[in-house]
Design brief:
The complex is a heterodimer of chains A (about 325) and B (about 475). By secondary structure, chain A is mostly helical. Chain A contains 14 helices and no strands. The N and C termini of chain A lie close together (about 10 Å). Chain B has 16 helices and five strands. The mean pLDDT of chain B is about 85. The chains are: A mainly alpha (about 325), B mainly alpha (about 475). At the A-B interface, helix 1, helix 2, helix 7, helix 8 and helix 12 of A face helix 10, helix 11, helix 14 and helix 16 of B.
Chain lengths: ~325, ~475
């Protein structure tokens, strides 16, 4: 097990290097730092001095790969590639445009993101599986038909409308919870109830439909027929046999997103003013803070790769037929 | 007045896509298995109904894709043989059709069917003094003059005549269809039987569902023609633009994003996917590595990074674009490309897996044993047998992309702010719910249009998948 995880981690390294190269190419080769400076400074304030100052402030005044002016190992380390790209592997992301340390900011914001994403994830999974089970229990009936229609209709609504509509209805019209904001500690609950509920509802449509197909696939297996043949009631068959086996594809399918929960949700966080990583990213995009966007891309990829490894491990935990080699 | 045709890049690709679609139809008619699969699509009521609605949207999108620059009136004192000057504003055929909606701009918000502005304004009374009143709209219900009390009766009359007209046209279409169906039935006893089969929904293709949907589309269209030139049926937005006009213009953007994204990524995904699956070895390793890397970056972040960089490129090269529309169009196309780059990996992996299976089948091995070249095998034996996966991916991705456009535009990494799209509409409308009194119609219009479009795309995609996926039949 340990050797396997270690090997997977080693496999992950080339992927991370690839991600790093892609972001480096996107941010420094497609455009020169001069172009970025011009873009961010705006048309009016562009002077050669201003561009130079902008680059020095952010450490973009070095050559890309090879610094002929430096001495010894400095020829390699005093470059944009080393300072901005390779340093990410030590989780050193430098400073944002407002002067704060990006890594520190990320640590601070992970808490609120997780406080929103974790309940959403657990409740969402529970709601969708329950809904799908009900549909499967009443399969080939009107309830099933209209349930699926409801799912398709729900997944045809943009998540923006769920958020805007929910905020308007619950916060403004009924005034049950604050429209937006956040407070640390247990106080956070009253700010988080609505965003969690909205995220769960917005996801139920597509998830429940997907789980329903998984259940239906499982229900046509031989062991289900055997279970029925030996006289088990439909409820026992469904909840004890089918549910257990169908959870294998469902669980392994959702494990990959668990690490990504740290990243938070862009839309919900920005609408509800929750100071998590999602709203951090949106603010960075709007302010064109390239350093923050670059750091988020890197962190996101790391978390995704962690998710892939967890998926492989979870297969062996829930499905004894799969063995790690 | 003359005009200068403008061919935007997205227009070119959109028409290319339509040409490919037409060629596919010709191809399908010749191949029995494909014809049978499409017949399965047509035999499902939800397939026919959603196809009708999608075709209606497509018609709007196509009309909106003929762009031109109108000629400016000759200035006084200009030389006789001076070259014609063209406006820098790029219009489309749809803009011409909707000219009354486009040009009749009010001052600010007005509710649907309103004859007055939504907010009070202080006006100078003719006899001196001031009053806070709701000013009369410049265009909304202007044919009523001062008799704004007759608005409800006028609207009701227009709706009645509109529905009646729509029904007449619809009955004519039904009659034509009955004649055609009766001709098709070889041993049938003519019209009556054909009509009865149609009424009971017993025709081979689900014509009844199609006709009912068509009736709805027709009623909506004719009501729009009757009402929209005289009232703002969905109200006006903050700068007084007609919301119905904005909604119709958004349709093209949504269609372009939904279809071109898949089109631009298709050659890569197909070529790399079947090459990785068929050739194996280091080619497979390299291709797998590339798509794993791209997959590892969370989609939104990759899109954000790429769009930010593309914005820099576009902003630093203003000389590439002669009009603002061309610049906005370049950004739309770039967004399609970026979305394509982030989303081709899924299709590529599916194709690789399918090709791995196909490679071991007898007919491919026989071809190899006969000495058929690798490229010929890929083209003749592998490609046609993975096309159903491509088609399913194409229709399945559409609705997701339309939804993604709205979210991305909201985040600020979507289409150009001057491009009319559902995302920009929602973005502008979201602050309006907090207003007192509330302005709800922009959001409602965007919601209604998007919901109908995405819902019919989802239904259609399901039917296509059921018909073409061998595991589901």
């Amino acid at each position: 097990m340990f050797a396997y995880v270690l090997r997977r981690l080693l496999y992950a390294l080339p992927i991370l290097i690839g991600v790093n190269l892609v972001t480096f190419a996107l941010f420094f080769v497609v455009n020169s730092p001069d172009d970025m400076a011009r873009m961010q400074l705006g048309v009016k304030r562009v002077t050669p001095e201003a561009i130079e100052r902008w680059k020095v402030e952010r450490g973009y005044d070095r050559p890309l790969f090879f610094n002929a002016a430096a001495q010894g190992s400095g020829q390699v380390t005093e470059t944009i590639f080393f300072q901005k790209s390779l340093r990410m592997f030590t989780f050193d992301f430098g400073r944002a445009d407002d002067g704060r340390d990006i890594a520190q900011e990320m640590r601070d914001r992970m808490g609120p993101s997780l406080a929103l994403a974790l309940p959403t994830f657990i409740l969402g999974l529970f709601t969708s599986v329950t809904f799908a089970l009900i549909l499967v229990f009443f399969r080939a009936s009107y309830l099933d038909f209209w349930g699926v229609v409801l799912c398709v209709a729900m997944m045809s609504i943009s998540s923006l409308f769920y958020i805007i509509g929910g905020q308007w209805l619950v916060s403004k019209l009924w005034a049950l919870v604050p429209i937006s904001g956040y407070a640390p500690g247990l106080d956070a609950a009253r700010f988080l109830v609505l965003p969690v509920a909205i995220s769960v509802i917005a996801g139920v449509g597509s998830n429940a439909r997907w789980y329903r197909t998984i259940f239906l696939e499982e229900i046509s297996r031989d062991y289900v027929r055997t279970a029925r043949a030996k006289g088990l009631s439909e409820r026992v068959v469904l909840f004890r046999h089918v549910l257990k086996n169908a959870m294998i594809p469902i669980l392994t399918g959702v494990v990959v997103v668990i690490p990504l929960l740290f990243m938070g949700s862009l839309l919900v966080e920005s609408f509800f003013g929750i100071p998590g990583l999602g709203s951090y990213t949106i603010d960075a995009i709007n302010a064109q803070d390239f350093a923050v966007v670059r750091a988020m891309v890197f962190i996101g990829s790391v978390l995704y790769i962690v998710g892939l490894i967890l998926t492989d491990i979870s297969y062996t935990l829930v499905d004894p037929r799969v063995r790690l080699e | 007045m003359g005009f200068l045709p403008v061919l935007l890049w997205t227009d070119v690709l959109f028409f290319l896509l339509l040409a490919i679609g037409a060629a596919t139809i010709v191809h399908v008619r010749r191949e029995a298995p494909l014809r049978a699969a499409w017949r399965r699509v047509g035999s499902r009521p939800s397939g026919m109904a959603s196809a009708v609605i999608l075709l209606a949207f497509l018609a709007v999108g196509i009309i909106d894709s003929f762009h031109f620059r109108p000629q400016l009136p000759v200035a006084n004192g200009a030389a006789e043989n001076a070259p014609a000057a063209y406006s820098s504003e790029v219009l489309s055929a749809l803009d011409v059709l909707l000219a009354p909606l486009r040009t009749r701009v009010e001052k600010t918000y007005s509710a649907p069917f309103a004859t007055e502005l939504y907010a009070r304004e202080t006006v100078e009374l003719p006899g001196g003094g001031q009053a806070r009143i709701y000013p009369r709209l410049a265009w909304g219900g202007s044919h009523l003059g001062e008799a704004t009390g007759e608005r409800d009766a006028d609207v009701a009359r227009r709706i009645a005549t509109g529905v009646a007209g729509a029904m007449e046209a619809w009955l004519a279409v039904v009659a034509i269809l009955v004649v055609i169906l009766a001709r098709r039935r070889r041993r049938g006893s003519g019209m009556l039987e054909a009509a009865r089969a149609l009424w009971r929904g017993e025709t081979h293709l689900a014509w009844r569902a199609a006709l009912v949907t068509f009736a709805c589309v027709l009623v909506v269209t004719i009501l729009a023609i009757k009402l929209a030139p005289h009232y703002h049926v969905f109200g006006t937005d903050k700068v007084g633009q007609d919301v119905f006009y904005l909604s119709l213009k958004s349709v093209r953007t949504a269609l372009i994003i939904g279809t071109l994204t898949t089109l631009v990524m298709l050659p890569f995904a197909v070529a790399l996917g079947i090459m990785a699956g068929y050739l194996g070895g280091w080619v497979d390793d390299v291709i797998q590595y590339v798509y794993t890397v791209l997959n590892a970056i969370p989609g939104v972040l990759l899109i954000a990074a790429a769009v930010l960089m593309m914005q820099v490129v576009i902003d630093t090269h203003p000389q590439w674009f002669s009009t603002a529309a061309e610049r906005a169009d370049a950004r739309l196309l770039a967004l399609c490309l970026i979305l394509g780059i982030t989303s081709w990996t899924g299709l590529c992996r599916l194709l690789r897996g399918e090709t791995l299976k196909l490679r071991e089948l007898e007919y491919v091995q026989a071809a190899r044993a006969f000495g058929v070249g690798t490229s010929a095998i890929l083209r003749r034996h592998v490609l046609p047998n993975v096309m159903h996966i491509v088609l399913i991916a194409l229709v399945m991705d559409f609705s997701g992309l339309v939804l993604a456009e709205a979210v991305l535009s909201y985040v600020g990494i979507g289409v150009d702010p001057t491009t009319i799209s559902f995302g920009t509409m929602i973005n502008m409308a979201r602050a309006e719910l907090a207003r007192e009194p509330m302005v709800w119609w922009s959001l409602m219009a965007a919601f209604a249009f998007m919901f109908v479009l995405v819902l019919s795309a989802n239904l259609f995609a399901d039917v296509v998948r059921d018909a073409f996926d061998p595991r589901r039949s």
